[in-house]
Specification:
The protein has about 450 residues and is mainly beta. The protein is built from four helices and 26 strands. It comes from Stutzerimonas stutzeri.
Length: about 450
């Protein structure tokens, strides 16, 4: 006796639902268009156009709100602070791109509703804003000349080259930091409300107050030199770390006293496929000398972010550069633990999420599928919201792309519900931006 077609369909649906019940599940989704801009100096004057013929630079009197490479809790539970990276992919084309943090408010689409749109929000309150303006952001600056590094604000023309455009007056007078000065890829706020940025050019640690004003000289990682390190450029040191291999990920322990800075590439002489995690004492403002090793699943992969669960456990994004339009994407999140691990030894790791295999029973992104994939080249923002929920956001590398299709990538915001909760995760504290204002009220925000 045959089985009726409706019954077959019902059985298939039941099997699919049962399979997804044990899967990590997309429970919130939102999207920010590629062409999202804020006011500011003209940008991308030295950047190449994308191959799709869209969003052709330069962007007159505008800065792209793009390249999200790190996330902090926002001023309320519905907003988040995102840090942009160095601009358009390299030191040589990003001198007119400002290093900023933006307050962003996603309206997540979920099974219960939501528009899936993303808006600007007030940096200090989290309140929605109509557009990205000075109230939504802060801009890093070295107005007090602490860095002891050459920056674009020191020059009359970008790159100190009179064949290039004139340095914008706002950059010059505010000593605003740009993507040619530093390649920041990570940020954390310590117990005193100071902010620490992980850079790839040194690699350096950069300390600012809550307004984004640099408060001390850049801190080098002892014995490690990227090609753009000031000593390598001066000829007094030899690079032993590839370009774009610096502090891609950086975590801070819950007490706010230790940073754990993770390099993106292997230091010359280290075992192939291993990356250093460097412990830094915030109170002493120096490295402790403890180093742990993170082993990639395969040599040639890269990490995208590292964030703390507790004093010894961390989540790490690991990925390749492949996308849906180029190669086979590998995008995963691992849990590591340094407890009981000796300095110089490898940390154990456990897979937590495969970002290419998420259940999407409610088709939140509207692609007609019940399985969600996240195939972007770079995925660099990760924030645990509770023991079962992670926020994950891609770096869209504007105006380039090819993540899902042959066009400029959008920025997607995901809420992922874990099939297996991570014990010990605490919801992120809210009001951090307001606390920062309390800690540094006399300085005010740098809104260049």
């Amino acid at each position: 006796m045959g089985i009726s077609k409706p019954l077959v369909v019902a059985l298939a649906a039941a099997i699919s639902t049962a399979a997804m019940a044990g899967s990590n599940t997309l429970v919130g989704w939102a999207m920010m268009p590629a062409d999202t801009f804020s006011d500011g100096p003209t940008s991308a004057q030295m950047a190449n156009a994308n191959p799709y013929g869209t969003f052709v630079p330069p962007y007159e009197n505008r800065q792209p709100v793009q390249g999200f490479s790190a996330v902090l809790p926002g001023a309320d539970e519905n907003s988040f602070i995102f840090m942009t990276d160095n601009g358009f992919g390299g030191q040589t084309n990003s001198a007119d791109t400002l290093l900023r943090l933006y307050s962003v408010r996603p309206d997540f689409r979920s099974a219960k509703g939501g528009s899936g749109s993303v808006s600007a929000s007030d940096y200090l309150s989290g309140a929605p804003l109509a557009r990205f303006t000075h109230a939504s952001r802060l801009t890093l600056n070295d107005i007090n000349q602490k860095l002891e590094l050459p920056i674009q604000a020191d020059y009359r023309f970008y790159y100190n080259d009179d064949s290039r455009p004139r340095v914008d007056s706002a950059i010059e007078f505010g000593r605003l930091l740009t993507g040619a000065d530093l390649d920041i890829e990570s940020v954390r706020r310590d117990k005193n409300c100071a902010m620490w940025f992980g850079d790839e050019f040194g690699p350096y640690l950069i300390k600012t107050d809550a307004s984004g004003t640099v408060t001390r000289s850049a801190i080098s990682l002892p014995g490690v030199y990227a090609p753009q390190h000031v000593d390598v450029v001066a000829g007094s040191a030899t690079a032993n770390l590839e370009g774009s291999g610096g502090f891609e990920g950086m975590a801070i322990n819950p007490s706010g006293e230790r940073l754990y800075a993770l390099l993106e590439k292997t230091v010359s002489g280290d075992a192939t496929g291993t990356l250093r995690i460097n412990e830094f004492d915030i109170n002493q403002e120096r490295y402790t000398g403890k180093v742990f090793l993170y082993r990639l699943q395969e040599p040639g992969l890269a990490i995208g972010e590292m964030t703390a669960i507790d004093e010894t456990r961390f989540l790490v994004i690991e990925r390749n550069g492949a996308t849906a339009t180029n190669g086979t994407p590998f995008k995963k999140i691992y849990l590591i633990d340094i407890r009981g691990v000796a300095s110089g030894a490898e940390v154990p790791k456990t897979e937590v999420v495969d970002l290419m295999r998420l259940a999407d029973p409610d088709d939140l992104n509207g692609d007609g599928k019940r399985t969600f994939t996240f195939p972007y080249a770079t995925i660099e923002s990760l924030l645990p919201l509770d023991s079962r929920t992670l926020l994950v956001v891609n770096d869209n590398n504007f105006p380039y792309g090819g993540g899902r299709a042959l066009n400029a990538d959008v920025t997607e915001f995901l809420k992922i519900r874990l099939a297996n909760p991570i014990p010990g995760v605490r919801p992120p504290p809210t009001g951090q931006a307001r606390d920062a204002r309390r800690c540094d009220a006399s300085t005010g925000l740098s809104t260049g």
